[in-house]
Amino acid sequence: MSTLSSTTAATPLPAEWAATVTTVVMPTYNEAANLPTMAEALMALPLDGLRLLVVDDNSPDGTGDVAEQLAEKYNEPGRPRVGVLHRTAKEGLGRAYAAGMERAVAEGAAYVVQMDADGSHPAEKIAEMLGVALATGAEVVVGSRYVPGGTLSDAWKAHRKLLSRWANAYASSILGTRVRDITSGFNLWSAQALHAIDLASVDSAGYSFQVETKYRALKAGFTVMEVPIHFEDRTVGESKMNLAVQLESVAMPWRLRSKALRGGGRGGSAGGSCSAGGARSAEHRR
Ligand SMILES: Nc1nc2c(ncn2[C@@H]2O[C@H](COP(=O)(O)OP(=O)(O)OP(=O)(O)O)[C@@H](O)[C@H]2O)c(=O)[nH]1
Ligand SMILES: [Mg+2]
């Protein structure tokens, strides 16, 4: 099965596409040791329109200050490249994303990329994800571990791989979606799609934000595509995953489904997804 990654990864985007204002929104909590490396990798990409917005929840390790130093380092007169949204308390990944993505769009982003700060997501794939969105008109492009060509870190033990697979199958089967990596945290969104899904009303405080937002996009009739990525394990710093967050992730698909059944959903069925590798056909529902 052919994949776009093999043909487009090394091909630079046309200059006009590379100039598209694309903001990487990066939530951080105690990521001071990771953030400079992340910023360096992003700022080195051949994407003139790329910006980074760090959303820090007042990290005790001083990540917010590190982010300010990076803004000073990379911002140029008339060319803002790094911004920082300081929030006062740790409210969860989902809340940080909702605030950051809203800010990014308000500041003029045509596309927004969600990305962890711990090195798990490959920065060099952003150009490909943007290229897929611009070439196909897809409003959501998922960096996917579970389409052909997608891979997981060897550091992940078998039980963790199984758990991740299971979490995807669990959410997808309850919600009736066909996105293969609906739990992925590495996604590119058009500003139009973000506006339509109404970030302010998203229920998820934690990681289920990834599932809820994709589900809302599908229900609103937007096309979701998936491109394969390699997912690395965190090597520096600590995971913020905890029991409360996991329980929310278990409950959320049921909550979303019952809300949709009660008529609180946003329009059509949520099935459509399309692999950039050509594994599926796109289903537009507008
Ligand atoms: N602002 C903010 N960022 C958060 C919060 N929780 C997690 N993050 C960030 O969200 C990203 C993902 O968190 P991780 O702890 O790596 O979670 P994960 O990738 O699902 O779990 P691991 O596989 O264990 O790394 C990281 O950049 C975190 O710093 C939060 O409450 N607020
Ligand atoms: Mg992580």
UniProtKB/TrEMBL annotation:
GO cellular component, one term: membrane
EC number assigned by the record: 2.4.1.83
GO biological process, one term: glycolipid biosynthetic process
One GO MF term attached to the UniProt entry: dolichyl-phosphate beta-D-mannosyltransferase activity
Annotated region described as Disordered, given as residue ranges: 262-286
Lineage top rank: taxon: Bacteria
Ranges where the Glycosyltransferase 2-like domain occurs: 23-192
Record key words, sorted: Glycosyltransferase, Transferase
InterPro entries xrefs: DPM1-like, Glyco_trans_2-like, Nucleotide-diphossugar_trans
Annotated SUPFAM superfamilies: Nucleotide-diphospho-sugar transferases (SSF53448)
Comp. bias regions, Gly residues: 262-275
Catalytic class of the enzyme: transferase
Family membership noted in the UniProt record: Belongs to the glycosyltransferase 2 family.
PANTHER family: DOLICHOL-PHOSPHATE MANNOSYLTRANSFERASE SUBUNIT 1 (PTHR43398)
Protein name: Dolichol-phosphate mannosyltransferase
Organism expressing this protein natively: Streptomyces olivoverticillatus
